[in-house]
Design a protein that fits this description.
Elements lengths: L2 H31 L5 E5 L6 H17 L3 E5 L6 H8 L7 E6 L5 H4 L11 E11 L1 E5 L7 H10 L5 E4 L6 H13 L4 E3 L4 H9 L5 E4 L1 H10 L2 E6 L14 H4 L7 E9 L4 H15 L2 H9 L3 E2 L4 H22 L5
Helix pairs in contact: 2-10, 6-12
Length: 331
């Protein structure tokens, strides 16, 4: 082969190689490039509450792994549906994510005219953790135990009022509704835009009792400003081992377990979702993150996207049935 022919052949091979790389390598390059700018993690509750605290913890860990800051954006109101609607309509590029609590699956049943569907409008990223709901009263409350509280509620129906951060289809508000139904008591909910404002109201004596997640209520319990009367999980909480369960004290078989997770808009590319799932699981495997979560009363979770999707589907059915059965309406 003469030098000219050899050079021409090499040029054709090089051109073909570049073309093949451009066609076959583009998706991998795009996935590797994510994220190209700071990621926004939207929370449907006010700062200071359990969802906000955990979102900031995960946002910090995710930001380090992704190489871009994760900015927590609080959009409280309407039982977190304002934030959820915002993310449902956001570009499906992985740059806007939603931090949800276990009340999220009930929103479709509670708010029938929403512009999103809890199953179809979102792509699950990962479950972050699970936690009980704790029933708390101010330190100066006359109620020293859970039985005394229920007795007073039955003696004066509708007189006691309570806070449940976020209102609407949130874990805390639904736990309260399930308890009222199963224990046959009548108490009035005072809605707030998250655990932070709800706790402020409880500490000031604006309400008689509260339903909250340990991650936000625990500091006040430990300081003695609040007294924990019961937890809603089947077993006692490791962070509150001396606090009995509702099932032990009043309603056999009663169980409401709160959970937290991260979602993305439905059409987000699978490669981006897989990257996010991988980084969330890696963050949850870090001893420092696990220790922090457990100190807040949250058991680290993680797992696959498929497992989280199945949980959301199951809980949407369960909470939807309960909301319709109880005839609940938005506060």
């Amino acid at each position: 082969m003469n030098p000219l022919s050899r050079r021409s052949c090499l040029q054709r091979i090089a051109a073909a190689t570049v073309t093949l790389a451009a066609v076959c390598g583009a998706p991998a390059f795009a996935a590797d490039a994510y994220p190209t700018k700071p990621v926004t993690l939207v929370v449907g509750f006010a700062p200071g509450g359990s969802g906000d605290i955990l979102a900031r913890l995960m946002g910090e860990a995710l930001g380090k792994a992704l190489g871009q800051p994760v900015i927590v954006d609080n959009r409280p109101g309407a039982g977190a549906t304002i934030a959820t609607s915002f993310v449902a309509a956001a570009p499906a590029d992985g740059q806007t994510l939603l931090f949800v609590t276990s009340g999220f699956p009930g929103s479709t049943a509670l708010y029938p005219k929403l512009n999103y569907d809890t199953v179809k409008s979102f792509a699950p990223v990962a479950k972050v953790g699970a936690s009980p709901v704790v029933v708390v009263v101010p330190a100066g409350s006359p109620f020293k135990d859970f039985k005394g509280l229920l007795d007073a509620a039955r003696k004066s129906p509708g007189k006691l009022n309570y806070s449940a951060g976020g209102g609407g289809a949130t874990t805390t508000s639904l736990a309260a509704e399930f308890l009222k139904h199963d224990a046959k008591v009548d108490m009035q909910m005072i809605p707030y835009k998250g655990s932070g404002p709800a706790l402020t109201a409880l500490l000031s004596g604006e309400v008689d009792l509260g339903f909250d997640i340990p991650s936000s209520a625990l500091p006040h319990i430990q300081s003695g400003k609040l007294r924990a009367l019961a937890v809603t999980t089947a077993k006692r909480s490791a962070v509150l081992p001396d606090v009995p369960t509702v099932a032990e004290l009043a309603v056999k078989g009663f169980e409401v377990t709160g959970w937290f997770g991260i979602l993305a808009p439905a059409a987000t590319p699978a490669a981006t979702l897989d990257r996010l799932n991988k980084e969330v699981n890696a963050a949850l495997a870090q001893p420092a993150v696990q220790e922090r979560l457990r100190s807040l009363g949250v058991e680290p979770a993680g797992g696959t996207r498929a497992q989280f999707k199945e949980l959301i589907g199951t809980e949407t059915q369960r909470y939807g049935d309960a909301i319709r059965r109880l005839g609940l309406r938005p506060e």
